[in-house]
Amino acid sequence: MGKKADIGIVGLAVMGENLILNIESRGFTIACYNRTTSKVDRFLAGRGQGKNIIGCHSVEELCDNLEKPGKVMLMVKAGKPVDAFIDQVLPHLEEGDIIIDGGNTHYSDTDRRVKMVEEKGFLYVGMGVSGGEAGALEGPSIMPGGSPEAWPHIKPIFQSMAARVDDGSPCCEWMGRGGAGHFVKMTHNGIEYGDMQLICEAYQLMSRGLGMTASEMHDIFAGWNSGELDSYLVEITADILAKTDEETGKPMVDVILDTAGQKGTGKWASQAGLDLGVGIPQIAEAVFARCLSAAKDERLAASRELAGPASEFAGDRAGFVDKLGSAVYASKICSYAQGFQLMRAASGEYGWNLNYGQISLIWRGGCIIRARFLEKIKEAFDKNPELANLLVDPYFKNVLSGAQDTWREVIKTAVDLGIPVPAMSSALNYYDSYRSDRLPANLLQAQRDYFGAHTYQRMDKPRNEFFHTNWTGKGGTTAASTYTV
Known about the structure:
The chain is of the alpha/beta class. 52% of the residues lie in helices and 7% in strands.
């Protein structure tokens, strides 16, 4: 038998193929397998021809072709297929061998699989991979977590094929035990949802509100991408707005049906916020915006029945666009702040000890939410690893303070025009809520105590002392035994 492979990859869909080509280009040998084995043959006869790739027609053959410790990476659909392949792979591995799941898996599934695989004498890694098709081929952002003992064995491979930032640092670092890597990737995707929705709201304000053409909007987004809003998503938005449909001659964006799909990671992030008691309303609003977009037929019917404002924009278009860019940037900061709050809560809950400056670094290249201002986030956490919220970092505090007047003006204009901006307005509400020293939750807690004897704390007493009032004079003195904040 000839040279064995440094790693084996199961799954030859778009991401699997491109990751194989990327890893091979860094000097490694890869064994590959696909359940439909004809895909293996086609790949080796096409893009994989003449490369250091070993095609395999069974899981057993794949594992037999691996250097020790054996490393098998699964690039298959999340859920039951991952469990099925784990069951197929384990009988062919030796103690200390490593299974890596590179799909969009829920972090709780990864946590479960780490425990199960370790109990059998093997190691397991749940690895978030971001960057899409191009990133997989040229260098993605990689977020591994799971069995810590696996990291030294896989680190040379994945750091070599990851994207790199300007100073040469790889966009790949160990996140933590259990499901930490997949949680960080899930949070990345939640921020991505918020970011995309903000961009779409800006587009809607310019197209519907200001009557701008796709060409004009292309110029705006291209200009934004050369300033503080410089990011992958703004860059591709400019590209999209410049594309013409070959069939109709119209801007491509105008012939695409306004119903958005989703794979579920934004929903998972929103659910994690609820589970951990962390306010991430902007991310949740972005998920709900996609859900509402999917109700296309209902919206068409409602558009003929429900009235909105008849006003039209009558101000300075160029001036408003400048204000809109400022509002998008302020809202973007809030989206990232909420994502880091979510990770902070999870890190405390699960004992992951996440490094937020490091996470900011690995998101600087390769991934979908890569943006210039992530360097500012890294600086914020490097200066203060215990930073409670990005909003109170001096840089971001000054940006938000300086932007808030135009931010409010943009949202008022959207309301006057009847154009929905759920993510942008949610971002402002988050900012206003977080900076408020007193919220109306005192009344809410009184209501809870009134109808359910859920108790309350008092302003004039020490925290964590609980009280109950007999509001009607008819109730007793018995109060509920739990008070959850």
